[in-house]
Amino acid sequence: MATKTANRPTAGRRDKRISRLMEQLDAWVCRHGNGKYEQGDWVPMQDFMIPDDTGIQQDREEIKEFIELLLSRGRLGTVLEIGLGYFGSTHFLWRLLFERVITIEKSHERVRQFGTNLRQFHGRWVLDDHRSAFILGLSHETATVGKTYQCASGGVDLLFIDGDHQYTSVLTDWLLYSPLVKEGGLVAFHDVALTVQGQYGVPEFLARLASGAIDGRPRQFHTIRHTKHLGIAYYAQEPLDTGGMHDASG
């Protein structure tokens, strides 16, 4: 299916739009949790400690640079994200950018609270505009996969994987949902520098995927990183190889 690419704004217009988007995102972040972005000196929590409830689980400079990338590409049809986060802040951001946003989230309470928070922010209920869809359940469950493929039957322009960060979970999410990404669309991962043994396996997975060790097809990754432990890595989807099956056991 051909992908409709939006008219790309000039650099000046794009800079103004980025400024407006960041102002809106800043306004959202300051109303939730501790009112801050993740800090550059953030370190992963261990020993069963509870992390601070930041207003968004993103570094401001990293997510801004990713926004700039998305706007420059102009492919802003549908995004599928795995994981809503504490306050749904990336879903809020995607709504500012994309025509349609699909989120897979296991917690019904988080989704319901996000709707309430969004109503308080806008002063009215906005989730009846058919631009947001929520698939409730664990991302690997059969029912979740089926509903997601039905909801995203036309394909997606961005897959943003930010759910469970263990190696097997990231592998599973990628195997299940990367086929939905249209040719030329982006597959992106968050927390690409987290390396806590037994908890965070994103760096290991990305290294194997980039080398071709996962399915025999190397990927060319680009990384946005201004922090020690966070970062966003992405690659552009190439035509799917239907010539044979590959070993994806990792």
What's the quick description here?
The protein is an alpha/beta fold and 250 residues long. The protein has a single domain (59-236), classed as Rossmann fold, CATH 3.40.50.
Molecular structure report:
- The chain has 250 residues and is an alpha/beta fold.
- It has a single domain, classed as Vaccinia Virus protein VP39 (Rossmann fold, 3-Layer(aba) Sandwich), CATH 3.40.50.150.
- Helix content is 35%, strand content 16%.
- It is built from seven helices and seven strands; from the N terminus they run ααβαβαβαβαβαββ.
- It has helices spanning 11-29, 60-73, 89-97, 108-122, 142-151, 167-177, 202-211, and strands at 78-82, 100-105, 132-136, 156-161, 181-190, 222-224, 232-236.
- The chain has a seven-stranded mixed β-sheet with strand order 3-2-1-4-5-7-6, with helices on both faces.
- Strand 2, helix 4 (108-122) and strand 3 (132-136) form a beta-alpha-beta unit.
- The two termini are 30 Å apart.
- 35% of the residues are buried.
